Amino acid sequence: MIRFNNDYNHGAHPAILEALRKTNSESYGGYGLDPWCKKAAEAIKKEIGCPDAAVHFLVGGTQANYTVISAALRPFQSVIAADCGHIQVHETGAVEHIGHKIEVLPSANGKITAAQIAEKAELYRTSCVQEHITQPKMVYISYPTEVGSLYSKKELEEIRRVCDQYKLYLFVDGARMGYGLGSPESDLSAADLARLTDAFYFGGTKCGALFGEAVVLLHPALQEDFRSCIKQNGAMLAKGWLLGLQFHTLFENGLYFDITKRAVALALKIRDAFVCKGFKLYSNSHTNQQFIILDRATMEKLAEKYIFEFQEQIDENRIAVRFCTSWSTTEEEVNTLIKDIEKL
Amino acid sequence: MIRFNNDYNHGAHPAILEALRKTNSESYGGYGLDPWCKKAAEAIKKEIGCPDAAVHFLVGGTQANYTVISAALRPFQSVIAADCGHIQVHETGAVEHIGHKIEVLPSANGKITAAQIAEKAELYRTSCVQEHITQPKMVYISYPTEVGSLYSKKELEEIRRVCDQYKLYLFVDGARMGYGLGSPESDLSAADLARLTDAFYFGGTKCGALFGEAVVLLHPALQEDFRSCIKQNGAMLAKGWLLGLQFHTLFENGLYFDITKRAVALALKIRDAFVCKGFKLYSNSHTNQQFIILDRATMEKLAEKYIFEFQEQIDENRIAVRFCTSWSTTEEEVNTLIKDIEKL
Amino acid sequence: MIRFNNDYNHGAHPAILEALRKTNSESYGGYGLDPWCKKAAEAIKKEIGCPDAAVHFLVGGTQANYTVISAALRPFQSVIAADCGHIQVHETGAVEHIGHKIEVLPSANGKITAAQIAEKAELYRTSCVQEHITQPKMVYISYPTEVGSLYSKKELEEIRRVCDQYKLYLFVDGARMGYGLGSPESDLSAADLARLTDAFYFGGTKCGALFGEAVVLLHPALQEDFRSCIKQNGAMLAKGWLLGLQFHTLFENGLYFDITKRAVALALKIRDAFVCKGFKLYSNSHTNQQFIILDRATMEKLAEKYIFEFQEQIDENRIAVRFCTSWSTTEEEVNTLIKDIEKL
Amino acid sequence: MIRFNNDYNHGAHPAILEALRKTNSESYGGYGLDPWCKKAAEAIKKEIGCPDAAVHFLVGGTQANYTVISAALRPFQSVIAADCGHIQVHETGAVEHIGHKIEVLPSANGKITAAQIAEKAELYRTSCVQEHITQPKMVYISYPTEVGSLYSKKELEEIRRVCDQYKLYLFVDGARMGYGLGSPESDLSAADLARLTDAFYFGGTKCGALFGEAVVLLHPALQEDFRSCIKQNGAMLAKGWLLGLQFHTLFENGLYFDITKRAVALALKIRDAFVCKGFKLYSNSHTNQQFIILDRATMEKLAEKYIFEFQEQIDENRIAVRFCTSWSTTEEEVNTLIKDIEKL
User: Fold this and answer.
1) Residue C66 dihedral angles phi and psi, to the nearest 5°
2) Confidence tier at B7 by pLDDT (50, 70, 90)
3) How confident is the model over C43-62, as pLDDT tens digits?
């Protein structure tokens, strides 16, 4: 069986394992106060052209999401998110568990718009019962989105404008950031992201690391005492240098984007193969996740040889499924799949 | 100006003030451990025909809602509610503040259906990623709903069946319970309510008391240690007998329903007057809140003499507004309004 | 039986009931947005000589405590309190329930000192593992304390200095504020309190009202969006004018202090009677609560005629008990008690 | 410089790195649903002789602590802990952050007693104001304790008896469990622990793994829906097999105890060397952490060559410090230290 089910089904890029091996006999200070975390933070700050950013390394995405949200909001403040947003649908109510309401907006192609956000914020601003409703204070989006789509620079700039107008923080879930910035369709640089957002993260877990998310805090108010938030939320790794070392390996010489660009290129080949055969796409993704609508027979045929993920039942006979690539996907695996698609 | 804006704009029914006056020089034990609370609880248990119920007196509705929810759910469990549910729209995220997600269902005429609830619960039951999503464990509805409509006995029995099937608690917000059970349209008795739900409350604040909600807990699991939950959530009144005394006054001789039936009758007269003149209703309410769609000119005309509440902008020219009656509404006020409606 | 068990065992001072009666047929806007709340706030601001204060009316003390704390602190920040502090011992973990640790200091005569607070704050400031411990950000004290004692102006000024030095908020639980400021032993004015603290409240429940606490917010950061905090924490009364009206009655013409000064004077007579007979005091209280150490036989003798409260088992034979006076305590009741003490 | 500062300053035991290397090209299901987690759970259940236990793998200790506590308690319930307990002093209020009060007991030699717990529980049971105080529902202890000491089997059995009597859960923090069970002083087996507790964990982070804690749930009520709690608390690793693989490596052939027994033996040699030279011990530890009281000059002398940790300032001239051993400590390092101690 060949796995295209997700981008976290293998260990780590070999360079990361090698770095772990080489440093295993060294001793370090704990909790992220070590030279590797420092170096990795420097590399990331250089990547985004933002020396004043604060960079912290957390273990996982759910942690990163609710820790940032918990750090940013007062109790009566809420976070605006798409109906398909990860915090809304797949984190077991972690954001509500730490006390905050998610204000849900309907999404199209995985995205929400500046106009929708403005409408929500304006509703609060003009409400005559403000104290009876939660105060939107943060916008949470994902780049790429849950269905692989990308905000354009223009879209993001518009969202930023609305956030400035209504004093909202803009926080970008970057669990797959590498595949977003690494997409040929993306017109955003890492520096753009740093310029336009208040906080975001470079996902490691899904982009070649064993685990780890590099949270980048741009807004000074979010930087304050963030290490206390990390610890309180169970997100501070004792052997923190394991995170720093991985991100140093990924960011020192561009490995992060080498990995993700390659995976995106492979995914786009899969996309093209399906499109050529007349299959409909579930979303317009130019990243490493491809969502295809299959009839049941085709799905079952492919499932004999490939592992891919169920996304949604479209109707009685049609199902949306996800094919995913990652650092561990080989050209050979993709070519085999493409040949089988062509034969369908 | 004549006030129809809400049902809590006056003090209390005179019988309640008189009871307060008469007992003011008496001394009592605190925190709800007094003879009045005991008598009031007995009267309510008699009303619902349920001697095993636990009855507690809280100050307000938001308190009642989140205290019951907090008592009932484990951290990863959620409460299902209508998109117009009070806990969803008008309690400043109090439910999320104490840690729980609200699973929102679209409503029609203010109501959600057994089928919708079953679908949501089934989605969880059959999910292959259960631990990534919240577990629905309680259904929250209002009787009457936020727009004055009523669940029929059949609808409630169907919801109960789904709750039994999926082991969900059924909790009914009864801030206006008197107007619901007191409506000629209602086919539910207080005993039906006790039989079909796990918890509900008889609202006092909006039904003639100065303040207070009588929470009735039917399910044994919800009864356990509930006083600790009340105190922890800031909902335990030091001079608790003030609550017991008010509910005793309301329930000892049927005053509660005398008040609410009269108010409903007045509201239905207002409804009829609007309907006769060809105005459209915003919702189908047979309770004390009437939601009418007015054109701007009519609204402004009526606003010269009456205070009523804005509900929703329907389109450029049409606005839904609310007219509300209560114990303090006089026949004369209603007749004056009706004459003015007829003149429109 | 004559009740000296607490100061909330009767309804309200007759002037308050009368005010309720007189306004019962008036209609008002809800949720504290009414003329009485406005007038009461003005009277209180005048009393404390602080026009920039924000005054809010909440129903009870537990609510007032955790709502202010929740409004003030970020998640990793803690509140410093005496080991006998009400939030620590008698609020069912309400402060922890909304997410905050209480840093407990040992008390003497119910009080904590500026030096103790400084030591705690300094421990944090100089900690090399700051992110592993909570950050003290607020000091919570009671005036008078749980055992009736009073901070002197000098003590409070010293605490203020430490709070300024370490950027801590100073919050004073004033459930019995009237008995504190109304004590002949007090060298504090209401204006001093406003000058020296960031937030405090004038308790109503225990000082002659049916219920209600007037929260006074001095620090601008605490004032921001406080109404949202009130609503979220279930502490916003629908018929808010009931609170405003009571505090207006208490503060318009000095009734609040008339009530509490009188009650303190009666309590001091009880104290003197016990002391004259050689009984030891449990605490040095010059307010309306008197804590006396009795041998078992004496306690049982007095318990035949009087209701008073158990405080603490001192040793096998000796028990500390509490005698409390309030607006409803009569001279006659006190004289009867004193005679019985003299006969012991 | 030679590091004795803690037991998490190196990577992982080589066998673990080797296991990671060997499996890096394999693909696995995510979130702990993989063969390695299954095998590791089986090995641990065999070790404790308890086939009905549920074993879950979390990343870190703070996570493990608050996730278990959050899963076990209703909102008004508290956890009893020693004043030196990790949850009380070094987790940034994580337990309070998720809503629970810690009831603190004074410790002696790092331990609390069955009698103290019984007294606390009895205080609640006999309280006439139960609803005003939190309900103790769990006892949290550490094995070994924060200062390296060990509960005897008899002590633990007594605590168990009290827990049974008062229906309290017994939860043991086992961040250093290997060093506890691996101590020659311990009279407990892993099976005893499983028999006497409701939940505990085998720490990996400090016992040779890169990271990871194996949480063992014995009580059926704690087992229910625990994976939802893990996910909600940000403690579910995407590549969960990394945890399973490490614990499999540690438990399949006894490596876990080989590592910890060896480290304890080295620590006891250090202890003996200090004792022989007449140094006083800060605590009576027979595990891998040794707490020694040094005068300032000696401390500074040793600090020229060794890194060890500050524990507490005893008086002006004397300081308690910690020397720690682990899998990475070499005989040579210990011998060098011992020679330097002898020369003091």
Assistant:
1) -75, -25
2) very high
3) 999 999 999 999 999 999 99
Q: Whole domain around residue A152: which residue ranges?
A: 14-253
Position B222, amino acid: L
Alpha-carbon C127 to chain mean position: 33
Task: Answer positive or negative: Cα dihedral of D36, D42, D44, D47.
Answer: negative
The shortest CB-CB distance from D96 to any of C99, C104, C133 is to: C99
What ipTM describes this predicted complex?
A: 0.96
How many pairs of residues across A and C have Cβ atoms under 8 Å apart?
A: 55
Our count of domains for chain A comes to 2
Final residue of a domain: which of B203, B227, B254?
A: B254
Q: What's the predicted TM-score (pTM) here?
A: 0.97
Q: Which among B76, B227, B230 is the nearest to D232, CB-wise?
A: B76
Dump pLDDT digits (tens) for C59-118.
999 999 999 999 999 999 999 999 999 999 999 999 999 999 999 999 999 999 999 999
**DSSP character string of A232-275:** HTT---TTTHHHHHHHHHHHHSSHHHHHHHHHHHHHHHHHHHHH
Residues of A in contact with B134 (CB under 8 A): 92-93, 96
Three-state SS for C34? coil
CATH number of the domain at A228, please: 3.40.640.10
Residue C254's CB is within 10 A of a number of other CB atoms, namely 12
Q: Do D84 and D184 sit in the same domain of this protein?
A: yes
Distance between CA A20 and CA A211 in Å, rounded? 13
Residues C230 and C317 in one domain: no
Identity of residue A214: A
DSSP H/E element including C313: strand C309-313
3-state SS assignment for residue A23: helix
**Hey, are the CB atoms on C211 and B3 less than 8 Å from each other?**
no
**Does C260 lie in the same domain as C249?**
no
Residue A323 CA to residue A308 CA, distance in Å, equals 5
Same domain for C24 and C48, yes or no, is yes
- What's the CATH number where B314 sits? 3.90.1150.10
Six token digits for residue B208: 């003639």
- pLDDT for the residue A225: 97
Scan for tokens 């204006």, then name that residue: C191
Same domain, D262 and D160: no
* Rounded Cα gap, residues D5 and D145, in angstroms: 17
Q: Indicate the DSSP class of residue B253.
A: S
> CB contact, 8 Å: B310 with chain C?
no
Contacts of C238 in chain B (CB under 8 A): 8, 60-61, 205-206, 211
Residues A244 and A326 in one domain: no
CA angle D305, D311, D317 (to 5 degrees): 75
Task: Specify whether D175 is located in the same domain as D125.
Answer: yes
Q: Which residue has the tokens 């010293």?
A: C158
Q: Based on the domain organization, do C261 and C201 belong to the same domain?
A: no
Q: DSSP H helical segments within chain D, as ranges?
A: 14-23, 35-48, 61-72, 86-89, 94-97, 114-125, 153-166, 177-181, 190-196, 220-223, 226-232, 241-252, 255-276, 296-303, 331-343
Domain boundary among A253, A279, A314: A253
Q: Is A133 on the interface with B (CB under 8 A)?
A: yes
> Hey, which residues 13-42 in chain B have their CB within 8 Å of chain D?
31
Chain A interface includes C75 (CB < 8 A):
yes
Supply the pLDDT for residue A207.
98
| 3-state SS assignment for residue D137 | strand
* Angle, helix B14-23 to helix B241-252, in steps of 10 degrees: 130
Other residues' Cβ atoms within 10 Å of the Cβ of residue B252: 16
